[in-house]
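Hey, can you fold this one?
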Amino acid sequence: MPFRSIASEPWQRLGTRVAFDQNSAADHAVVAAVAGTTYRILAWRLTIASAVNLTWKSGSTAISGVYVFGSGGVDEGLMPFQAYETAAGEALNLTLSGAVRVSGDIWYESY
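Sure. Predicted structure:
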């Protein structure tokens, strides 16, 4: 299937987009904590250089299962309507299991 623009997708217009590019085994704040603010992921897209596991977290607490990506690199494409949500006042973190380059975008809403 050829790539198509997502600019006209209704959910994309509703959320805020942020890009990220990480390459170490750690928790990475994709969206920083703001007192009293909750974040909800609407969609995400990843490009992964090689084998790695990743987990979305609210601060240090997992809010998704572990996503396991095999070797050879992956362009995960768009994962719309992934309704993972942080606790109020906690950062939206992406945790990588290894020193592998993971880059991409998320679309989220805050309230």
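Confidence is low (pLDDT under 50) at residues 1-6. Let me know if you want another pass with a different chain boundary.
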